């Protein structure tokens, strides 16, 4: 029987990122995917700066950056065009080194990440292969798969289901879903712009018209997406015709200036798997949680899952951490995802109102403030609420090298001790190689060290987790002791590192 450390079911962006992270950490990984080709149509549309930084560690961000565009604003307007709510992301790069918003082309990302994964000697990709069953045991899981050569079994220490909202792994594990009770039917229309037009607009628009709520969203250059909410009594067949689509697009753009690339009916959900881990079986991405699209955070949340889970699995497989560390995955990630989902649901309820009286009351309430006060910066997402000590929880900044060099990528998925001065680094921590990297800010003047210094404050050092969250600030020796304890227990006390 073939053996591996980790078997991943599903080769979407989350499964691919997890596979790259693991393989680059010295973990042997097999990824099975029932389809052979990358799905050619765009699905996810938005990546935030934190996710672009994490995708850079998985080999996908550079390709995406060359085929993406930022939003100038994200606006919620009523049927008359009055602003209800709006966000304007800063034009400057975030402290992670990436734009705050990137409207991208998902197939470009998936192709790049598949290429990155197949280049890793510790990774094996099996296309056209479906997971059909598994048996969990005391030392790992025996997975049954079926492909062109028939059925076979693979022994793995861990199985991770990154196989989407209809997850086979979740179903086989008997894991139910916690439903927030907010789901609505929508038609999504992806279009190609004719005559070399790169964009119709740089604004993402939620048209909050009770007669028919509409989303209008610039995608990668040369593409634009519309989403139309189905009305009571309508069927997908009613709105899928060329005539119906042209009539719905006409108020926003000339239908003759574009061609329809994709038309699809979908019903969004706000659900969470009741358990994200069952013995040696773990769920990530849409298999673990799904959210409405109004914040563009579905794929972003899945990539954060992969980043959080990968280094923990690697540490356990290598014998550097206790299995208890894996128990921290859901408690650390679920509150973060729930907070984002609740925000997306709240925005969705603004958009999806079809009752005219309720929409009028909504408009009056939201327009009490002057229009300028209805705009804000891009919504700030909460940091990590557990798995950190005092001074931790924020997304760590990214040092940026000269000439486009990305020192962040060279660190890979390992922890990093950042000190104000090289002299403050403990002598027993290797600067290169080993499990812990050390960076001295006095050696990186002018390369993006200012945000680090702002987070450090008066503390001599900061420990950054492999998933790029700040673990804590304090004395180097105390930080290392707290980190060691966290690897054993999966718990970090929210107290100062003395």
Would you kindly provide a written description of the structure presented here, covering whatever features stand out?
With 498 residues, this protein is an alpha/beta fold. It folds into three domains: 2-68 and 104-178 and 270-350, FAD/NAD(P)-binding domain (3-Layer(bba) Sandwich); 70-102 and 184-267 and 352-380, D-Amino Acid Oxidase, subunit A, domain 2 (D-Amino Acid Oxidase, Chain A, domain 2, 2-Layer Sandwich); 402-489, Glutaredoxin, CATH 3.40.30. The chain is built from 13 helices and 25 strands. It has helices spanning 13-24, 49-56, 61-65, 106-118, 168-173, 236-239, 242-249, 298-317, 329-351, 356-366, 407-411, 450-456, 476-489; strands spanning 2-9, 29-33, 46-48, 73-78, 83-87, 101-103, 123-127, 130-137, 140-147, 150-161, 177-179, 185-193, 203-208, 214-218, 223-229, 258-267, 271-273, 277-278, 281-283, 289-290, 375-376, 416-419, 437-440, 461-464, 470-474. A hairpin with a 2-residue loop joins strand 9 and strand 10. Helix 1 packs parallel to helix 8 and helix 2 (49-56) runs parallel beside helix 8 (298-317). It is globular and about 60 Å long. The model is unreliable at 430-434 (pLDDT under 50).
């Amino acid at each position: 029987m073939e053996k591996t450390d980790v078997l991943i079911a599903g080769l979407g962006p989350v499964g691919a990122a997890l596979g790259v992270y693991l393989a680059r950490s010295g973990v042997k990984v097999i990824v099975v995917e029932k389809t052979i080709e990358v799905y050619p149509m765009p699905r996810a549309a938005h990546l935030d700066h934190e996710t672009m930084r994490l995708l850079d560690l998985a080999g996908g961000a550079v390709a995406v950056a060359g085929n993406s565009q930022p939003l100038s604003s994200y606006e919620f307007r009523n049927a008359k065009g009055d602003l209800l709510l709006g966000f304007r992301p800063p034009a400057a790069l975030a402290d992670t080194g990436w734009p705050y918003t990137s409207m991208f082309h998902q197939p470009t990302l998936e192709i790049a990440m598949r290429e990155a994964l197949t280049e890793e000697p510790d990774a094996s990709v099996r296309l056209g292969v479906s997971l059909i069953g598994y048996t969990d045991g005391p030392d790992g899981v025996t997975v049954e798969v079926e492909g062109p050569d028939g059925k076979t079994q693979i022994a793995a220490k861990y199985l991770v289901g990154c196989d989407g909202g209809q997850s086979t792994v979740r179903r086989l594990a008997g894991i139910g879903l916690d439903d927030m009770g907010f789901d609505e039917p929508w038609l999504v229309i992806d279009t190609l712009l004719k005559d070399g037009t790169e964009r119709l607009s740089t604004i993402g628009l939620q048209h909050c018209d009770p007669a028919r709520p509409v989303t209008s969203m610039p995608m990668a250059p040369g593409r634009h997406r519309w989403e139309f909410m189905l009305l009571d009594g309508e069927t997908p067949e009613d709105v899928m015709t060329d005539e119906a689509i042209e009539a719905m697009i006409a108020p926003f753009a000339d239908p003759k200036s574009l061609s329809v690339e994709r038309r699809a009916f979908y019903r969004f959900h706000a659900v969470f798997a009741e358990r994200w881990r069952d013995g040696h079986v773990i769920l990530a991405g849409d298999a673990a949680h799904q959210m409405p699209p109004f914040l563009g955070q579905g794929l972003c949340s899945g990539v954060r899952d992969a980043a959080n889970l990968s280094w923990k699995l690697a540490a356990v497989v290598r014998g550097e951490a206790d299995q208890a560390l894996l128990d921290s995955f859901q408690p650390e990630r679920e509150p973060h995802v729930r907070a984002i989902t609740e925000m997306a649901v709240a925005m969705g309820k603004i958009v999806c109102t079809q009752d005219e009286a309720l929409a009028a009351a909504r408009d009056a309430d939201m327009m009490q403030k002057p229009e300028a006060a209805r705009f804000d910066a891009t919504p700030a997402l909460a940091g990590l609420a557990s798995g950190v000590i005092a001074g931790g929880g924020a997304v760590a900044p990214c040092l940026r090298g000269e000439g486009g060099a990305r020192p962040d990528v060279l660190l890979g998925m390992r922890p990093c001790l950042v000190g104000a001065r090289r002299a403050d680094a403990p002598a027993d921590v290797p600067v290169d190689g080993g499990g812990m990297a050390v960076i001295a800010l006095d050696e990186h003047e002018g390369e993006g060290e200012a945000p680090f210094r702002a987070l450090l404050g008066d503390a001599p050092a900061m420990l950054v987790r492999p998933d790029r969250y700040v673990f804590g600030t304090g004395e180097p020796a105390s930080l290392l002791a707290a980190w060691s304890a966290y690897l054993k227990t999966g718990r970090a006390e929210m107290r100062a590192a003395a």
